[in-house]
Design a protein that fits this description.
This protein has one domain. It is built from three helices and no strands.
Length: about 70
């Protein structure tokens, strides 16, 4: 999924360069680079998500298992 996002970032970056070099208004140029920045932020967020360890995966697959129960005090 991140690879697909990297492709989108590269396409948006190329589009932003083309928009800015074509003499577009400052607002259009800024909007094009904002789109690139948003995609980069999403890619960064996806890289930061911690994968589940084996116990967390087990509890996701078996939420009713005794060892996965949570008790309120």
């Amino acid at each position: 999924m991140i690879d697909n996002l990297q492709e989108k970032i590269e396409k948006e970056r190329a589009a932003a360069r083309a928009v800015c070099e074509s003499g577009a208004s400052a607002g259009e140029c800024a909007a094009a680079w904002d789109a690139v920045e948003e995609l980069q932020a999403e890619a960064s967020h996806q890289r930061q998500t911690k994968p589940k360890n084996s116990f967390e995966q087990y509890c996701s697959d078996n939420p009713d298992a005794a060892e996965c129960r949570l008790y309120d005090d």
